[in-house]
Design a protein that fits this description.
The protein is of the alpha/beta class. The protein is about 35% helix and about 20% strand. A hairpin with a 2-residue loop joins strand 3 and strand 4. The radius of gyration is 15 Å and the shape is globular. The two termini are about 15 Å apart. InterPro entries: Pept_tRNA_hydro (IPR001328), Pept_tRNA_hydro_sf (IPR036416).
Amino acid sequence: MVVGLGNLSLPDTRHSVGMLVVDSLAKYLGTSWHFSRQSLGYVAVTKVGHLEIILLKPSVAMNLNGRSISKAVTMYKVNPSDVILVHDDLDRLVGKYSLKHGGSAGGHNGVRSAIASLHSDSLRRVRVGIGRPSKRDNVTEYVLSNFDPSEMLVMERTIEQCCNILMKELKLLRS
């Protein structure tokens, strides 16, 4: 299961880059989204060969998304260690990304919510860099802002690269 973290009501913001990635992955896979009351979010399910791929965009607030993830994990009978979170990372420059296997939330409230709700820190994560604001006290305003046009050009490439990494990770989970 791949979960794109973000705020559905603010789809093009830095904080919702995880949702931008899973939207791109859904498009690549040729699948579409449907709202799932049971999962408290939008779900897209498809198969690639024998591999079932479940994508989730929680419809609850970022800091509460663990509720949605937990419900989807139960509904689709997914092991928490088979969940991959895709989320924004202030500590990486725009366009940089990394894969992390397990560990703490690193100060990200959305990740913290997922870890707490699943009672597991074994989640895989794709951390997508959004950079930092020049002033520390502007973090909230910054993460809720849109990428500027030059950053968006960089992010389009990054999102494609993240989709490639996610496909490799999904295949590894099932092997």
